[in-house]
Amino acid sequence: MNEQSVALEESWREALACEFASPYMQQLKAFLVAEKQEGKRIFPKGSEYFRALDLTPLADVKVVILGQDPYHGLGQAHGLCFSVRPGIRIPPSLVNIYKEMQSDLGIPPARHGFLEHWARQGVLLLNSVLTVEEAQAASHQGKGWERFTDAVIRKVNDECDAVVFMLWGAYAQRKAAFVDTSRHLVLKAPHPSPLSAHNGFFGCGHFSKANAFLQARGRAPIDWPLPAAADDI
């Protein structure tokens, strides 16, 4: 996988050129091609593998939210962690994210799960693994994506200032353990999954804390309320 063949937002394409030229990315590309040749359905579609980066240029990153894998159901994944396409049922973890936003900021839960409104403001909604086989959770773990997204996080850590990292769950907290807390705000809480949200995600106040930090550092806060209709984004 080389950067010349990837339709990617310019700042990220330049920042990650060495990654795209690396042997592990060539191996990852070969794996994905072979999977498709076997007739396997891969989510999201190829043009959306890097959607999180396309919507949030490196210099614009204000908040990083880390997920693990794309949704593996038909029509769900579109390249942003926790987000689903318009018209798709809101997943349980996102329902809980909305509940915490309502508790924290008084924002009524959105009736859709399409989060591009956040991404366009500087919220990098990054999964650790960027592809998955239909109905096969975690099927593309250990194929190279984790190394690539580690590089993305390192670029944000090294080249951006005053970024909020919302690390929900042990996996995200391990993945971003190297973030420089003298320059960035690291917020930690349990994962919003129904299995763990009651252990400290609810009541974490991350959304208001993020905006307070951004404003204190002279950066515009995130407009967290989502448009009433996903089509308005």
From TrEMBL:
Primary subcellular site in the record, as a coarse category: cytoplasm
Swiss-Prot/TrEMBL keywords: Cytoplasm, DNA damage, DNA repair, Glycosidase, Hydrolase
Any one biological process term the GO annotation gives: base-excision repair, AP site formation via deaminated base removal
Documented EC number(s): 3.2.2.27
Catalytic activity: Hydrolyzes single-stranded DNA or mismatched double-stranded DNA and polynucleotides, releasing free uracil
Active site: residue positions: D69
InterPro entries: UDG_fam1, Ura-DNA_Glyclase_AS, Uracil-DNA_glycosylase-like, Uracil-DNA_glycosylase-like_sf
Pfam families, per database record: UDG (PF03167)
Family affiliation: Belongs to the uracil-DNA glycosylase (UDG) superfamily. UNG family.
Protein name, as recorded: Uracil-DNA glycosylase
Organism expressing this protein natively: Rhizobium favelukesii
This protein's encoding gene: ung
